[in-house]
Amino acid sequence: MLRFKSSISKKKIKARELQRRQQRETLNHLFGDSDTIESDDEINADSQSAEREPIKLSPSIPSCLPSHEVMNNENYQFDNVHPFDDQLLDMDNSRPLFNGSSITVKKAVDQLCSFFTDFNINKSTVVNLLRIIKIFLPKPNQLPTSWKGIVKVLGRASTPRTTFLCSSCLKQCEKGIYGTKLYHNEKCSLKNRTMKSTEIVELVHLDIRAQIQAILASNQLLLNRKDLYPMTDVCFGEYYRTQSSGTINRVTLIIHTDVAPLVKLSKQSIWPCFASLVELPPPARDYQKNIVLLSLWISKLKPDPNIFLQETIEELKSLINAGTSIFINGQEYEITLRTQYFVSDLPAKVLFCKTINFNGYSACSECCSTGEWNTENNVVVYPFTRNNLTPRTHSTYLNAAKEAQTKSIRGKAVSIGAIKGLSTLLQIFEYPCQIVFDYMHLVYLAHVPSLIKCWCQNVDRSVVNSIDASLNQLRLPHNLNIPFLESVSNAGQWKAKNSRLFVLNVGVPIVTLHLPRLLASHFLLYSMVVKIFHAPESIEEINLTEQVMNYYCKTAPLIHNSSIEIFSLHAHIHLAQQVRRHGGLAHTSASAFESCIRFIQKKAHGSKHLGAQISYWIDLQTMIQTQPVKAPTIAAINVIKYILLLRKFSRSKGMF
After folding, report:
1. Are residues 306 and 363 in the same domain?
2. pLDDT score at 652
3. Which of the listed residues 559, 587, 615 is the one where a domain comes to its end?
4. Residues 619, 509 share a domain
5. Which of 533, 567, 587 is the last residue before a domain boundary?
6. Do 268 and 383 share a domain, yes or no?
7. CB 432, CB 367: distance < 8 Å
8. Which residues are within 8 A (CB) of 61 and not within 5 positions of it... i.e. 6 or more apart?
9. Which residues form the signal peptide (predicted)?
10. Residues 6+ apart with CB under 8 A from 466
11. Does 257 map to a domain?
12. Are residues 232 and 256 in the same domain?
């Protein structure tokens, strides 16, 4: 994606200039009144559509991808949604903030908005702060003191779209006076009355294209730098390499969703849908500012995936089928969109794929193993010797989903082959090869606590105390300095970073010292397998490690007991295939998205219109995200390589 070659004719350039001039006039008309103050609870994110004709380009091909033909994006309907998202509205913001000032209005607003977003200041406080700053500035000055004035200076309109649904029937509510919500469906239990905030579902959709454009523009120096991608990255997996043929200027999305509490008193939760860009090298791919927020669901209820993701999926489908164009440094480039995989923890995966619960029968998305009931532990287990490893396919999923949807009547779900219905998510993902296991939740938050629990049941308390003492005496470098605040007997309370440190770094020497030889050697196998899958160096290494993993899963009930053969252990059998498809497990973790959830939680203030507030701040961050990221440089010297070259040179000169 680096160094595109733009090929725009003079006629098209003039057409663009005329179009931008018309857009500026429209923008000035929309923001003619710049003194209106919007409260935190009253955010209007609606915007009108305008027609524009995308221009086809012939950009250069990314060096790490084969060349392909340009896709036609003339029918991409979402290019016509927001007229101010191209960052090409050259408004007169180069004027000084006041007479004699060396700072322009645009630069001042950018820096202030960066401060507001970094410190999570609410909108009313921002307006008051701007008014105070304006008083201290020389008169006259051009500092805006309202949100409409700020957006006018930034040259874009806020684009998120908010919809309010009835929590009972999930139909759209009507807006009443003073921001109240009404619903008049005679069949609904909440009909003909003002609805409480806890009875409303807030559904927010953000502009995907504008966010992708801002991210690519700020990271353009990182694109196509093959030296920045580790050989275990997603882009070197089988799926990415096979799907790259026939694509030009490709942007590939990894999509994730999960839940987090938002308002404790009303028990409202937030379900964000995120996406990251495969074409950005790690770790830049996982930075919060480089994560795309697709949509938000805020309610006490779990989302219906077909309602929650309907508009997002339609927009993504249009981007995938028709392509679009983006602007970097004033140049227009055609891009095509693809999806890499959907990752989430097991409960969210079950919800959004509309499958049976992960602790039930036939819960595996990869194979046809049914599992069996363990009467001793009252749990469904998946014995290794009775697994049915016949792979599931996308077509069988669709057939079972359609049959289940037909047989489900009056709200009672019927499962066919562990499939409860047709998920809209499968319109852009292939099941099961693009529905992956989250490495973080599966390994570090599911299996490792279960494994340590089995240890504690088979050793004396003195052994547990000695392991705790060893963990507390660890002296680690600053980048791994993670304290173990809980005993191993409470490993279920460990954070993912504790389990990760234990498996990848410190666990092997500690268990070798304190655990019986059988338990220690068995964990040794597991630690080795996870380390290799974390960053495998070759396909042969993956194949060998797959055999070791199968041996580990096969012997686990013999070393511990049958209760360990729950689904979280069974899923480990399929990790090798996932690594072949999508690269090392280090790059199929939801940890970066989990951090983003905590980030956006802080953007909500008060108790009303929380989703609109979050989307507004994320959209504002997109507007001011213009500073290019510098490409990293190698600062260290490879001493070994230097010595070898020196010896080779010396021998050629006959020095020794």
Report:
1. no
2. 64
3. 587
4. no
5. 587
6. no
7. no
8. 67, 68, 248, 249
9. none
10. 513, 514
11. yes
12. yes
Based on the domain organization, do 372 and 246 belong to the same domain?
A: no
Give how many domains the chain has, as a whole number. Answer: 2
Count of all residues that appear for the chain in the document? 656
Q: At what angle do helices 123-136 and 105-118 cross, to 10 degrees?
A: 140
Calpha distance 105→94 (Å, rounded) = 7
Rounded Cα distance, 345 and 351, in Å: 10
> Looking at the structure, do residues 569 and 604 belong to the same domain, yes or no?
no
- Residue 169, domain member (yes or no): yes
**CA–CA separation, 130 and 110 (whole Å):** 13
User: Does a structural domain hold residue 652?
Assistant: no
pLDDT in tens, 329-342: 878 888 889 999 99
Domain for residue 504, yes or no?
yes
Mean pLDDT per block of 10 residues along the chain (656 residues) reads 46 64 56 40 38 36 35 39 38 76 90 89 90 92 89 80 84 71 67 74 92 91 87 93 76 94 82 95 92 94 93 94 85 89 94 92 93 92 94 93 84 84 93 95 95 94 95 90 92 94 95 95 96 94 96 96 94 96 93 92 85 88 79 63 65 58
What are the beta bridge partners of residue 297? 203, 271
Q: Which of 320, 270, 263 is nearest to 295 (CA)?
A: 270
Burial 579-613 (b: 16+ CB within 10 A, else e): bbbbbbbbbbbbbbbbebbebbbebbbeebbbbbb
Range of the domain at 369: 347-392+432-587
Half-sphere exposure of 424 (CA within 13 A, CB side): 15
| One domain for residues 265 and 214 | yes
* Alpha-carbon gap, residue 457 to 475, rounded angstroms: 28
Comparing CA positions, the residue from 95, 101, 58, 54 lying closest to residue 74 is 54
Which DSSP string corresponds to 538-587?
-HHHHHHHHHHHHHHHHHHHHHS-GGG-SHHHHGGGGHHHHHHHH--GGG
pTM over the 0.85 mark:
no
Do 259 and 372 lie in a common domain? Answer: no
